[in-house]
Amino acid sequence: MRSVFRYEILKTYVKWRSWIAFVAVGAVVPLVEIALRLQGDSMIRAMTRGIASEFLLVGNLMNGYYVTYFLMNTLWIHIPFLITLGAGDQLAGEATGGTFRLLLIRPVSRTAIFYAKYLTTLLYTLTIVAFLGVLSVGLGVALFGTGPLLITGEMLVILPQSEVEWRLLVAFVLALWGMWTVASLAFLFSSLVENAIGPIIGTMAVLIVFYAVSNIPLDLFAQIRPYLFTSHLNLWQTVMEQPIPWREVATSAGALGLYTLSFVLGAWYIFATKDILS
Questions:
Q1: Which of 40, 119, 215, 277 is the most core-located residue (most Cβ within 10 A)?
Q2: Mean pLDDT across the stretch 182-211?
């Protein structure tokens, strides 16, 4: 199993398509942070204009932690699409290349091959999220320094620096949990088709439809919204609330876990019973 896992990791990371996500994140994050470096102070003044006359705001509000939070909110609807590029290619890529039969004559079971590919998918997703986190925080702190975290929304919240670091860490862990659900969906589609493009397009289509239903303010959609996994992908944002709604966190995390498990079991059944012809 270990040798198969190492082999799948090598195959995944030598493909140029697998690096598109890293190139995209590596280009967008510095670009946004440089733009914020040039104009970020005016944005902070605009957000705090309503309370600046009543409260004395001290500290470096335009800091690396705020920039990281800003980037997460900006990019998180796009990251799932980047993840499908690697996750959707795991099984379908073998069919496209005509290497399935060659792969299955090795002295390992289909189940071992399946889980080696799935674990590779999880690792690939982890490296993308980790790259986003390390680059955002590292470059942000280098350019802006540290300080409290300003959060705007229905209420304006300023989290002290002593809380920001562990909250960001938990936020990235919960964000990864959601991205594993997206990767598992792409993996399921990858087991259904024999074209590597199909799982990517299929997952993107599901995300677009579910995101639309999750955000269109209609009563009919409001009834089914809690049952869509896309409604729980913003789970990481709840960690920035004061106080943290841990029950809501547990509910959404459990829902995403059930979706992930169903996607994986479905993919395993399809792969285990599939008649491999190429």
A1: 40
A2: 87
Render the burial of 122-139: b for 16+ CB within 10 Å, e for the rest.
bbbbebbbeebbebbbeb
Structure tokens at 60: 């470096």
What is the per-residue pLDDT across 148-187, written as a single tens digit (0 to 9) for each?
Answer: 888 876 667 778 888 899 999 999 999 999 999 999 999 9
The CA distances from residue 251 to 52, 179, 246, 268, in Å, are 37, 17, 9, 26
Q: pTM for the whole thing?
A: 0.88
**What length is written for the chain?**
278
Enter the DSSP assignment of 62. S
Tell me how many helices (H) and strands (E) the chain has: 12, 2
Which of these, 182, 151, 176, lies nearest to 244 by C-alpha position? 151
Judged by DSSP in three states, 51 sits in helix
Question: How many Å apart are CA 86 and CA 89, to the nearest integer?
Answer: 5
